[in-house]
């Protein structure tokens, strides 16, 4: 009887276990290789992005100090220019070391331009005959040779950012694939176990037998009380407990390895996101700090100090506000509280947002036109969150519209009587390069900004049960539409006020 059971039931079970073990082992090896390749790619992309950012920062600093040296050829200024030239040379070397093969031509162009600038320096480290003052000096400063190198530097940084985005997409695809493989293995194991158990139970029950098997060790992994299985058998399986212990140990080992691989994949995704976030935040914080640092150094230098005037203080305040906005965007992106909804008239919220953005529109000589209906447009929303979304949309529209253009804000009703707010502009429209990832983090074409504003805005819209979309208008410009769910109770409450 014992040999019969072992040959008829244990053989197929062992074969099935071997197949599952082989499948698990193969999946583990494949996932480990994918994770290793992805981690290596992320490290390289992060290093390339950092090298491109460093090169751009030092070129900007060289141009600033060179202009300051042309205006004030003191030994301290000369030392600053020489130090910046050393830093730019080191940054170029780092960029070449980390350079992607596709970027060699662009990096060589930057190197040639910088060598031409170096070759044009005079005996006193002043490029050419720089005017000392007046309008000629301003025109000379605007046409400084290093200024032309910033455009390919920005292109180099944009390329690295695109590669980082592709790495994140590959990480997500690999995580999806790994999840499907694990689900498939789990389903195969469950189905094989059910079929094998059914066959074993049917064969054994035909022979009157009794066998007590303890399954407390497996119970900890299954998360439920399996109880006790009793089968009568004329023979005694003395080594059954030992075999079950080995099976339990194997299950623990395989499950532990799969969990380790899942954690490694998650860590790779987190590293990719952290790398992209760190690069964006470093760029957005370092540039304002550099400007503030230069102004403070000019005021504190021991020889020929330049006191801070009203314009300098205004510039410092502007850069501080910019950094504060960057930090606030990050906070909003990381932690958006649930909306505290109350009935509000969207016309009033649009008016408040337009008042907040009025000063920015006046500086660009733009017209902000409000198309508001005569009847109330009630909606159950969180006032502060929706006001922040409307203000962000207005800021974006104003920034994208050239001087003399127009920004229009309208309030209406969409399908299903859903209240809707549209913000349109007469700018260049949405850049096709970011159209597909317009609402993803860090997607922006602005020279400043974190690219988190639209991401947070869409999250707020979804938390309210609504939508936020952005498209290009046929006649030029862009149109963003914020649609909120219809709220009959909100309309009744607003009408009774």
UniProtKB/TrEMBL annotation:
Organism domain of life: Bacteria
Gene Ontology MF annotations: ATP binding; phosphorelay sensor kinase activity
Known EC number: 2.7.13.3
Domain Histidine kinase: 280-488
InterPro entries assigned: HATPase_C_sf, HATPase_dom, His_kinase_dom, HisK_dim/P_dom, HisK_dim/P_sf, Sig_transdc_His_kin-like_C
Keywords: ATP-binding, Kinase, Nucleotide-binding, Phosphoprotein, Transferase, Two-component regulatory system
Catalysed reactions, as listed in the record: ATP + protein L-histidine = ADP + protein N-phospho-L-histidine
Enzyme class: transferase
Statement: the UniProt record of this protein carries the keyword Nucleotide-binding: yes
PROSITE patterns: HIS_KIN, PROKAR_LIPOPROTEIN
PANTHER family tied to this protein: PEROXIDE STRESS-ACTIVATED HISTIDINE KINASE MAK3, SENSOR HISTIDINE KINASE
Record's protein name: histidine kinase
Organism of derivation: Urbifossiella limnaea
């Amino acid at each position: 009887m014992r040999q019969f059971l072992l040959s008829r039931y244990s053989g197929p079970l062992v074969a099935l276990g071997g197949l599952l073990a082989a499948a698990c082992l193969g999946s583990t090896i494949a996932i480990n290789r994918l994770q290793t390749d992805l981690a290596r790619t992320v490290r390289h992309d992060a290093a390339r992005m950092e090298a491109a950012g460093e090169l751009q920062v030092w070129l900007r600093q060289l141009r600033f100090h060179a202009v300051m040296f042309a205006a004030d050829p003191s030994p301290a200024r000369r030392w600053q220019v020489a130090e910046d030239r050393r830093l730019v040379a080191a940054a170029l070397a780092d960029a070449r070391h980390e350079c992607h093969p596709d970027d060699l031509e662009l990096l060589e162009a930057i190197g040639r331009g910088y060598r031409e600038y170096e070759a044009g320096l005079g005996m006193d480290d002043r490029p050419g005959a720089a005017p000392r003052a007046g309008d000629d000096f301003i025109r000379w400063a605007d046409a400084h040779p290093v200024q032309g190198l910033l455009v390919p530097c920005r292109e180099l940084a944009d390329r690295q950012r695109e590669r980082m985005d592709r790495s994140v997409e590959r990480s997500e695809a690999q995580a999806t694939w790994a999840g499907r493989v694990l689900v498939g293995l789990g389903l195969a194991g469950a189905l094989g176990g059910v079929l094998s158990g059914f066959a074993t139970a049917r064969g054994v029950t035909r022979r009157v037998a009794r066998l007590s098997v303890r399954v407390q060790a497996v119970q900890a992994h299954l998360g439920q009380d399996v109880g006790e299985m009793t089968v009568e058998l004329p023979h005694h399986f003395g080594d059954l407990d030992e075999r079950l212990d080995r099976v339990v140990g194997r299950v623990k080992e395989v499950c532990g390895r799969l969990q380790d691989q899942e954690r490694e994949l998650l860590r790779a995704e987190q590293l990719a996101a952290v790398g992209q976030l760190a690069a964006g935040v470093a760029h957005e914080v370092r540039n304002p700090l550099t400007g503030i640092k230069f102004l403070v150094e000019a005021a504190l230098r021991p020889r020929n100090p330049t006191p801070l005037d009203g314009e300098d203080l205004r510039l410092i305040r502007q850069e501080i506000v910019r950094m504060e906005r960057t930090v606030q965007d990050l906070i909003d992106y990381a932690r958006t509280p649930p909306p505290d909804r109350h009935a509000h008239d969207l016309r009033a919220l649009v008016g408040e947002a337009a008042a907040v953005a009025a000063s920015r529109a006046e500086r660009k000589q733009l017209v902000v036109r409000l198309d508001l209906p005569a009847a109330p447009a009630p909606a159950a929303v969180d006032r502060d969150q929706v006001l922040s979304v409307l203000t962000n949309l207005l800021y974006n529209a104003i920034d994208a519209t050239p001087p003399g253009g127009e920004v229009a804000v309208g309030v209406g009703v969409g399908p299903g009587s859903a209240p809707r707010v549209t913000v349109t502009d007469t700018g260049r429209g949405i850049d096709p390069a970011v159209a597909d990832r317009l609402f993803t983090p860090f997607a922006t074409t602005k020279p400043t900004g974190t690219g988190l504003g639209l991401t947070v805005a869409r999250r707020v819209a979804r938390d309210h049960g609504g939508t936020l979309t952005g498209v290009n208008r046929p006649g030029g410009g862009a149109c963003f539409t914020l649609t909120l769910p219809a709220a009959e109770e909100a309309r009744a409450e607003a009408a009774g006020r």
